[in-house]
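> Could you send the GDP/GTP exchange factor Sec2 N-terminal domain-containing protein prediction when you get a chance?

Sure thing. Input:
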Amino acid sequence: MMEQSSLVDAMLDHRNDLSDVKSVDSVFSSDSGVMATSEIFENDLQSITTEKLFNELQRVKEDLQSKDSEIRRANEIRENTNREIEDLTVSLFETAHSMVEQAKYAQANAEQKLQIKHLENSQLKKTVNELKQILNTCRLSFNMSTTNNSVN
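Output:
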């Protein structure tokens, strides 16, 4: 934008210079054809300068359009990247949450199985103790019966 205003200012300054040249030429010119030559020169100079300025303006416009296009593409890339990052972040947190839930379920399941195994172990120990008592009772009874038989 700064370049455009500088370009417009330069054009206006150049026009002022040309009008100054015309006024000086008209004061010092005679009717012997000098005026016609200076007018031709002025017209040529003005058309060349205008053409150069126009070409420069076109080049600047094309550069601006190109830069605008690059900026749009960069913004699109940035927006797409931001969306991808957001999607990946959401996916990451969903996966992490799922893994935590699975771990909690597995831990609860393992604790329940452990509790059942402890209960089964206690039951088996109780059964073993009962069997030992029965065995001891049987031995005592057998010993008493053999002792009674031997005494007789």
